[in-house]
Amino acid sequence: MKLLSQLRTSSFQLALLYMVVFATSVFLLLAFIYWRTAGFMTAQTDETIEAEIAGLAEQYRGRGVNGLITIIRERVTRDPNAKSIYLLTTDDFLKLAGNIDSWPEGARSESGWINFTLDESVGWTGPKRLARARIFEVQGGLRLLVGRDVDELTNLKRVIETAINWGMGITLALALLGGFLMSRSTTRRIEVINNTSRRIMNGHLSLRIPTRGTEDDFDQLAENLNQMLDRIVYLMEGIRHVSDSIAHDLRTPLTRLRNQLESTLITVDDEEARDHVGQAVAEADQLLATFNALLRIARLETRGNAADMKVVSLDELVSDACELYEAVAEDKEQSFEQSVEQGVMIEGDRDLLFQMVSNLIDNAIKYTPEHGRIGVAVRREGTDAIFEVQDSGIGIPDDEKDQVFQRFYRVGKSRSLPGNGLGLSLVSAVAEIHQGRIILTDTYPGDETPGLTVTIRMPAYTGETKRIKATQAELPASNASSRPTADAPET
């Protein structure tokens, strides 16, 4: 799979394109060399034959037919290896002289050139060889064939063709290897940037892309990205500091105002006035809950509460939360089902985990109508500990599913219900601290009320699990690794 991913990279495809261009250039060059070399050798052979024909014609003009026959026999005698091929016959193909006995079969060009095989069919007694000759008629009705053994030339062409084929194969192999190595080197640099970017997107904003100090294009890109990240973190910290400061500064006077209203509620005798003051106290409580949630999320994101990690029995923790909320579900006449596997252990902060579990169960009860169904489950799958909450509630439209972990975001269907839109932001922050991944799916896909199933997968404790350190990189406001695949309500 790693090799396949390597082959899909743009750097390898670019190297492959270069390889094709380079191989095409090499092929054209070798083809030109072969064409020139083979053509030169063929032309040289034809010139030799033409020279022999010219010599024989001169002998014929000077000495007649007998002189022609004599010179052919002399040349055959002087050439024991039969490099030259001769055949002189009458018009009825009766042999007069030569080192073959009959006319060869083969395609003959308009100029009289013919390529044929020296074998038994032409009266050749030696090993089978290739030959090229020219045929023409001599005055007096004689027929003359003059040729050359081109077997060595043909073998040489084959050697050149083989060399070209091997050269092309080696060129392609080396180009492919070079492209692979080049793309691998480039991909490694890009993969470092991608891996670091993914970790940054998952909340480790303190990480930076490493450089090699070579000042090449990748180093310049990494430096620019790092500067951009520094600026983003600076701006985010500024915004977070302002919002946290506002929440912290307003909480104290709001607490005093709430206490004064509560004191006033005790002293007021008029029933209508008591109702108004009571509503003011409830509104103040809601504001205080919002500010406390904001400050709690801020502390989680800076790892303020992540230092005390211990082995926690997730099944016992969830059972305790279910016992607390079971009565609330009974008040709404909801079916509250539990499926808790025993002995599911994780490493984490029990208080934070309890708050996360409580938030999700509370959401399920809040957004599920009367006579609905709530299901809570704990189980272990491989190396993961699974906590899951199902409901038959209102669900969330698909176009809002990517936004449910944002602060203060509330689904349109739930805006009329009490809440501040911070519940799932808190759940996301706690899950991230515990290396958890949130998966959201519809409980009843396609129904008018699809409900929601919230699944949180966290590493199970095996006795070798490394403690989560409080010095890990800080978290963003939303858990990027916990993107929902369906919809969820929020507090």
UniProtKB/TrEMBL annotation:
Record's keyword terms, sorted: ATP-binding, Kinase, Membrane, Nucleotide-binding, Phosphoprotein, Transferase, Transmembrane, Transmembrane helix, Two-component regulatory system
Domain of life, source organism: Bacteria
Membrane-spanning parts: 12-35, 163-182
Ranges of residues in domain HAMP: 184-237
Reaction(s) this enzyme catalyzes, per UniProt: ATP + protein L-histidine = ADP + protein N-phospho-L-histidine
Keyword Transferase: yes
Compartments in which it is found: Membrane
Coiled coil residues, start to end: none
Positions of region (Disordered): 470-491
Pfam families per record: HAMP, HATPase_c, HisKA
SMART domains from the UniProt entry: HAMP (SM00304), HATPase_c (SM00387), HisKA (SM00388)
Gene Ontology terms for molecular function: ATP binding
EC id: 2.7.13.3
Protein name: histidine kinase
